[in-house]
Amino acid sequence: MQQIITEDIVKLQPKWLLTLPRRLREGIFEENGYVRVKKVKGRLILEPVRILSYPVRRYTEEEVNNFFALDEEDSKKLRKKGLI
């Protein structure tokens, strides 16, 4: 599948403000939404970000591994079936 590239030239306003043209922002960004800005090899990349209204906990790698750890019985069953 070929990606269609859409581009426009916009003028930077005082205090470095710019307006994203409607045809570029529609379907990607929400009005008053949040945007992640990354600088990669001399380019700026804009990505929409959704902020959750509730707290989200980050799990450590150890906690994730413990969560997915198999008990001995499950491990034997999966080995028997050749799945691990």
Descriptive notes:
The protein has helices at 22-25, 61-68, 72-80, and strands spanning 34-40, 43-49. It is of the alpha+beta class. A two-stranded antiparallel ribbon has the order 1-2. A hairpin with a 2-residue loop joins strand 1 (34-40) and strand 2. The model has no long low-confidence stretch (mean pLDDT 88).
Provide a brief overview of the structure.
The protein has 84 residues and is an alpha+beta fold. The protein has helices at residues 22-25, 61-68, 72-80; strands at residues 34-40, 43-49. The chain contains 3 helices and 2 strands, in the order αββαα.
Key structural traits:
84 residues, alpha+beta, two-stranded antiparallel sheet, 17% strand, elongated
What's the N-to-C terminus distance? 35 Å
Q: From the helix content, strand content and strand pairing, which structural class follows?
A: alpha+beta
Weakly predicted, low-confidence segments: none
- Count of DSSP strands: 2
- Principal-axes geometry comes out as elongated
Largest sheet: 2 strands, antiparallel
Going across the major beta sheet, what is the strand order? 1-2
Number of helices: 3
- SSE string: HEEHH
What portion of residues belong to β-strands?
A: 15-25%
Helix fraction by DSSP (H/I, runs of at least 4):
25-40%
Radius of gyration (Å): 23 Å
